Amino acid sequence: xxxxxxxRHLSRFFPTLExxxxxxxxVRELIDELEKRHPGFASYVVDETGRLRRHxxxxxxxxxxxxxxxxxxxxxxxxxxxxxQALSGG
Amino acid sequence: xxxxxxxxxxxxxxxxxxxxxxxxxxxxAHPGVSISYAARDPRDGTLWAAMDHGHWGPKLSRSKDEGxxxxxxxxIAYPKGARFIEQHLxxxxxxxxxxxxxxxxxxxxLKVWVLxxxxxxxxxxxxxxxxxGGLFTSVDGGDHWELNRALWNHDSRGGDLFxxxxxxxxxxxxxxxxIAYGEFVPGIHSIVVDPRDGNHFYVGVSSxxxxxxxxxxxxxxxxxxxxxxxxxxNPEAAWGHDPHFVTLCPGAPDRLWQQNHCGVFTxxxxxxRWTRVSRSDVAVHFGFPIAADERDPLTAWVVPAxxxxxxxxIDGGLFVARTRDGGANWETFRKGLPQEHAYDVVYRHALDxxxxxxxxxxxxxxxxxxxxxxxxWQCVGNNLPPIxxxxxx
Lengths: 90, 393
Hints:
The complex is a heterodimer.
Chain A: E1 2-6, E2 20-22, H1 27-37, H2 42-45, E3 56-60, E4 63-64, E5 80-85
Chain B: E1 4-9, E2 12-19, E3 22-25, E4 35-40, E5 47-53, E6 57-63, E7 71-73, E8 83-85, E9 104-106, E10 111-117, E11 126-131, E12 135-138, E13 146-147, H1 149-152, E14 187-194, E15 197-206, E16 209-213, E17 221-222, E18 243-249, E19 252-260, E20 263-267, E21 275-276, E22 290-292, E23 300-302, E24 320-323, E25 331-333, E26 351-354, E27 357-361, E28 367-370, E29 378-381, E30 387-392
């Protein structure tokens, strides 16, 4: 079970979004599960090709994911995942 | 007389109301979100805004209650398998003799640049022009959107890349408007619907030119005859043109106008042939927007800018130019507009005309409205965010 938390900026679009437990073995599965719980959520984090949006970051623990194109990074049983907007400048 | 103006700004959507002859903005909607285009569907009154989230991807938003509440839509997306031929922004160290193999890229929506509404006998039909160069159409009022494959697969873009490799050369260039997204791709910024027949419409593409469909988007043909690209060895090439905005006269729809990178052009035969009508002696040449009169095919307005090397108002003074004779002559109007230390430039969607009313907004956050066909101006706001679009609503 991965534990995922979110930048508060996403609450603007999904007011019921809160840190939660998600059964997922990869980041892709995690996003798919979050899409089921919050329809439309995935489109804020990934584009229609499945690639992580340019200015969005996903961390597992303190490490940014490596596979931004397919989100294949594996999640351990107690993974802590953070979905954040990137500090791309400014 | 229109009582509302919709502004798409760098920091949200502004609805400006006319009360007792004065124009006053309401509190901003979509605060903090860059809005690339906002307009009202004249058929059912729905307000539309194209959101350009910095982080979260482009989305559409609509309001069915005059802007009191907005609903964000996430359904506009390129279908799986939509590809385009990759292009590269020329760089100083690029070796022009080095052959690059043709590379393909999967399309993802970067920006909804413009929206256009179908005719009154096409309720629910809405078109969206996007980067990287796709036209989308909804037939159900925006709940679902579909890529126009005939245009996406056009020979001028390399043919049908869903199924395989290119069968023709890509003639569509990139637009600098895409560079902020880390890409060099074309963009559809103009969708011009013939009010007599909703299946007849045009798109304007940066940078390729104008294309026309007469069968509701099933087939497309280039309409660039007479356009001149001064930056090409052959200025009359079939492709590679850079219209900045294309529009038509609703009362005489065979009359089209375009502000192009290389001047102002007009056509009186439904884009069969374009004629350059710039007059550099009155500084009408470069600029981004153009507005056509609703009824008079010979009247149009532009807000000229100092050539493409500067892209700002000319000599620090802002003015609007109007022709009433199809572009043969242009009058310039400055009353009510700043004439010192004004460096505003007006983006392609940020000028509109409705009846005797004309309005424009600038990158410097200034908005001016005229109620006497552009001859004098009142200021709507001086400290607004940079203005991307202005539409009477």
